[in-house]
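Q: Here's a chain of 405 amino acids. Please give me its 3D structure as tokens.
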Amino acid sequence: MIDTGSTGFMLLACSLVMLMTPGLAFFYGGLATKRNILGIMIQSFASLGWTTVLWVAFGYSLCFSGGEGGIFGNLDKFFLNGVAIDSMYSNGKIPEVVFIAYQMMFAIITPALITGAFANRVTFKSYMIFLTVWQVLVYYPFVHMIWGGGLLAQWGVLDFAGGIVVHATAGFAALASVFYVGARVDKNSTPNSIPLVAIGSGLLWFGWYGFNAGSEVAVDFITSAAFLNTDIAASFATMSWVVIEWSRERKPKFVGLLTGSIAGLACITPCAGFVPLWASPIIGTLAGIVCYLAVQLKNKMKWDDALDVWGVHGVGGVLGTILLGVFGSKAMNAAGSDGLWFGNTSFFVKELVAVTIASVYAFIFTYLMLAIINKITPVRVSEEEELAGLDSSIHGEQAYDEGAL
């Protein structure tokens, strides 16, 4: 019998997660230079369309059909074969079609996160190939291994809403992209619209409630705790980032405040439904501090991660997964596991090993994949196209009509 409350909530959560991808486009679009606003935004919106095609065709099946204890599922649900309108998700509360749509929104935003790292430098054709291959050979296997009953799930690895599956893989893929593509020609790259960054950040924070609370796939006590944990961690990360940046640079920066909030949201993602409420302020505070220091390290090393994808999402996802291994509590969620704080060393080790494997694999695979794609079509735009801006040179459009009154 369908649970109408849980079904209604999951439809709302699905809509919230969908909204995160346009939110990401606004966030990245505001941070990009004036000549590259559309070039970065189109990459997020393209994922909305193309990832849906892939997900319906075979992505959902590879992630959630069969393959117990393995790396991939099977193709039994190719083009949603066998999914009837009254098919139920395994928890018996919501229709399977709602779960398909919800997980599809995760698949859409994950590769879009990576695009901020190589802003202003990558051809659209190579990006579309990248979007396809990366999902199939990085995102899908980790979804199946952790959320689809695969290898890591059977080993006891937990990830409530995507610290490993989404943020660690995307963040370290972003770092590999930076190393392969190289630095921008124009080093003087400043945000074209901080208000646009704020709009995007607000949409991401808003959508993240669906991202984290919705990952319980039901309406219960865990759902509400995950919701509150998400907001608390984001808020503490926001303020810890502001404090440390203010103390170091003598000025409170708005972009820093917004970036700190995203760091906190990324960090609480794997933990949200598995850690007690008292742990979320600690997790958020550490997220703000550690991710800020990661961005400073990136700057010192001159890694041209244009929009700090590695420092915020990669480091945030890894840190959150490790902290899940510390603060996880079965008293909070019986489906979870006690962490190091409660005397369970083995779970901490499993989380540490799993997130290390995911990060290393995503980094190596992404670097090699870009090298192969470059044999097919150039990955990087020409210097002339980069200096002119991708909006006009690649897409033949401009974000603003500068001749209008």
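Q: Can you summarize the key feature?
A: The longest helix spans residues 345-376.
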